[in-house]
Amino acid sequence: METSQNNEPCTAPTWSRAPGDAGCDLVTVPTRQGLEAVDILRRGAVAAVGPVLHDDGRDTLGFLVPAGTAAGWDVPGSTCVRTEGRGLRLTPEPPLAGSDWLLPPDDGDPATDPAVLRRALGEAARLIEAADSCR
Asked: How much helix, strand and coil, in percent to the nearest 5, is found in the chain?
């Protein structure tokens, strides 16, 4: 399956971080794959998805993952950027201009487990490839 990948770094968000908060990194994927992954994560036995941003202008979804994930992220068709040093406080207002929350932050875990996200993105890619091959 071929997916488009936007290699442009995200515009620096205007986020702030609470003292002692480790922050989050951001995994971006094409919207179609991201929506499939959200569905997979929400269907699981345990709700395993944190806040998700939708950037309509770039046609991407952004999953918040724990800080440090970007250093080892290698999932084809996706990009993971560090937000460390920029700060992060999840607020009802989306942190990027032109984006909106698909799944807004709440009082639960603010980040999606990267291993769980990796599996969901892989499954989503396989589902999309299977659907596209039936056309």
From this structure: 25, 20, 55
